[in-house]
Structure formats: C-alpha cells, structure tokens
Amino acid sequence: MIALSLAEIATVVGGQTYDIPDPAVQVTGPVVRDSREVEPGSLFVAFVGERVDGHDYAADVVAAGAVAVLASRPVGVPAVVVDDVQAALGALARHVVERLGATLVALTGSVGKTSSKDLLAQVLQRKAPTVFTPGSFNNEIGLPLTALSATDETRFLILEMGARGIGHIRYLTGLTPPKIGLVLNVGTAHIGEFGGREQIAVAKGELVESLPADGAAILNADDPLVRAMASRTKARVLLFGESDDADVRAENVRLTENGQPAFTLHTPSGCSDVTLRLYGEHHVSNALAAAAVAHELGMSVDEIALALSEAGTLSRWRMEVTERPDGVTIVNDAYNANPESMRAALRALVAMGKGRRTWAVLGHMAELGDEGLAEHDAVGRLAVRLNVSKLVAVGGREASWLQLGAYNEGSWGEESVHVSDAQAAIDLLRNELRPGDVVLVKASRSVGLEKVATALLDDAAVSSEGQVSGR
Fold it and tell me: What does this protein do (predicted)?
C-alpha cells in the first residue's frame, strides 16, 4: 500500500485509535485479513467470521510485524477501531485509489473473468507496472484488498468484479471508480439467484453505468445483451469479438494440434498473428477482451499479439494441463463450473484428444435454480454429441442428471457412469486409464473435484519415483 500514518487511516475510516503510542507511525506493508500473510509494516484487518474471529489473532499479528489492527473493538495492541470493518476497508481503498496515478480497469462477466483478467495483466505488465486481482478475489472484501496492494509505482490497476445480485457491482465501482470498464458476457452463472439472464445483464451493466464520459466501455460485440449496454454509458464504446463490426476482432480462428487457439488479431491500428498457450477456443474471446483494453491504453497490435502469445495461466485449477510420464494428460479445470464453461471445456477436451481416449469427469453446477435439471441434462447430451469417450458423473442428484442426459442422448450404457464422490472417481480412473488418455476434471467449487486431478498426478509421481529407485 502507499504509505499512510495510523492517524491518517483513522481519519479516512472514521475510527478511533487505541493503544497506539505514536499515531504518526506509517503502514508501509500490505493490508491483509489472513494472519499468515502479515509482514513487517502490515495493517491487519480483523473480520468476524462464522468460525474464526480475526480479533483473536491481534497480539500474534503485531508480534509478527503488523503496525496495527483495523478492528471493531479494542484488542490490547495498536488498533484503529471502527463500527463496521468492511465499510472501513472500502473507505480506505477509495482513499488510496484517489491518490494513485494509476488507470483503473474493471471487468465483469458470467464466464471467463479470471482468465481474461490474467491475460490482460500479462499484456499490460509489458507496458507499465500493473497490479491485478489475485485469483477470484472479486467481492466486497477481496476487491478493496487488491486495490490497497497498489503502490506509488502502479500505473494500471486491474480489478475483477463479481456479482450475486443487483447493486453489487454498483457498490464495488463506488469503492474503486474505474476509467475503463470491460464486460465479457452475460451467461447463466448464478441464474438461480438472479432469476434470469436479463436480470444478470442489469447487474453486469452497472459497471458501464459507472464510467466517466472520458472513459471507455469495452463490450463484447458477439453477445447481444452486452452489446446493448452501449446505451447505458456516457463513456466511449469499443467493441471486441468475431463480429465483422467489432473494433478489435479475430479472423481465421483455428486450433493447433494441441488444442491451442490461433487467430489473426485485428485492431484499428493493424493486424498481427496470435497463438495462445492456453487450451480451448473459448480463450479467443478472452484474448480479444484483453487486446481491446490494451489497444485503448496505447499498445501496438504487435506488442499485444506478442504478449498474448507468451501469456500463461496464472490462476490455479483453470484448464491446467499436465502430461504424466505414461502419456496420460490431466486437464484440471475444477475451480468452478457453469453451463457455458462446461461446454467450452468439453470442446477443448475433444480438440486436445483427437485420436486419443477422452474422459470427462464432471460434477454438479451450482446456483442454477429451476434451470438445474435442463442444464445438467444438456451437458450430458453434449458430451455424447462431441464423442467424448467416457463421462464420469460425480456426486448426487445433479450428477445423475448429467449421466441420464448422456444415456438418453446416445444410449451410452458403459460409456457413462455415475459415481458417488471424488474417491469413487479416483478408484475408477486408476483401474481404467490407459497411456495416452486425456482426462478433464470440472465441477462447481463446492464439489472439490480438484482432488481427482491431484490424486491422478500424485499417482504418476509415485510411479516415477518407484521406477527411478528400482534401477
């Protein structure tokens, strides 16, 4: 964080200081909520959770080097005490970003936020010091913590914004007002909470409504609900996509033999070829989104194309591709799932697995409400239509819907199976995998299917060590 004294922080957040010998002492380290992340000079934010109360760690974090605690009650060590810790954290973030000389870029969408953010960060880092949301740290706590990690040297601050209801993004943009707003798509993620795609569009569009007249709204030309947001902003509009009228677009889109997308990138300043290191054609849209923002910020088309072609995966469990020594390829995409990302992952699996056996190890997609049965059934059917070799549906009722959709689409029988949990899936795969197989693992985060990918990779490591020791 930019250096601030405890007296300044107390004034900004409307708090009172307790047990602080010298209010002029500055916070020079990171602002953190996890006691394990404390460094010398930190400010520790004490939240009260369902199982853990951060106030209980106050003495420990100060002993570890924290300058003070942002708390809702005195804790016996240096503290700034406020009525509402979350509101205070947001106020501090707003104060800091107003002092920064950085351009704030915010992005939202139903699918691809984290992948697009990671690509954009790697592109903009080529131009100037860039701070960006780690992982999916995109809510009312994670976003201000990210903003507070910026320093005086930061020139671009990229903030991913998530929403579970109307007004959430409006709140986040109030904390960190963006100059550039990027909307990727309007899908069915959280549709059970919102009540329909139109309501999701209302929520996502709050981002472009927040932009200033001298800002830029970067909108997906291929998504009608996103394109329509052009009427909701004072900012200049830049379209990206594969549509002919997109300002930043892709032509000659294709997949390499490894399933990695390649295309010609067109911007208003010229064109250049891109071959991504990521897997699956769905990343073309993510790359175009990043390219559009980079173009808006003055990068040349050749600079953008090179940066995109060299960018990798920064966030774990998102299409992480690992090949075992025996030739089995594990695709760990287990961080989360919704209908759009499931379809994209299945298509990527098939592209990667040409001439090889493909396995789709899938679990339920959460928060679909009344659409749950139809959406799970449709994913199971798509696996058949794409000629995935075998579907392993993992879990309870929703997994049975996946398996039933596959069975009804193709009378698969032995080609689809429903198992109770991750361990059952691991046992099945250990018995049936053959060298050269490609295994996709994907479900909503609550299912914990990353355990399947981890176990299969650990098996390979143990096997490899055994072969070495036996020589």
Answer: Involved in cell wall formation. Catalyzes the final step in the synthesis of UDP-N-acetylmuramoyl-pentapeptide, the precursor of murein.
Q: Whole-prediction pTM value?
A: 0.89
Is 11 annotated to bind a ligand? Reply is: no
Q: pLDDT, tens digit, for every residue of 78-132?
A: 999 999 999 999 999 999 999 999 999 999 999 899 999 999 999 999 999 999 9
Do 361 and 430 lie in one domain? The reply is: yes
**135 and 62, same domain (yes or no):** no
Last residue of a domain, one of 289, 308, 327: 308
Find the Cα–Cα–Cα–Cα dihedral 361, 366, 371, 375, rounded to 10°: -10
Residue span of the structural domain in which 51 resides: 2-82
Residue 280 marked ligand-binding: no
Residue 179 assigned to a binding site? no
Tell me whether residue 255 is in a domain. Answer: yes
Dump strand ranges (E) for 12-122: 16-18, 26-27, 31-32, 43-45, 68-71, 79-81, 103-108
pLDDT in tens, 312-332: 988 888 889 999 999 999 999
Provide the number of structural domains found in the chain: 3
The verdict on 74 and 141 lying in the same domain is no
Residue found under tokens 């400010």: 43
Report whether 363 belongs to an annotated binding site: no
Q: Is 354 annotated as a binding residue?
A: no
> Are 33 and 109 part of one and the same domain?
no
329-357 pLDDT, tens digit per residue, is: 999 999 889 998 899 899 999 999 988 99
Residue 181 marked as a ligand binder: no
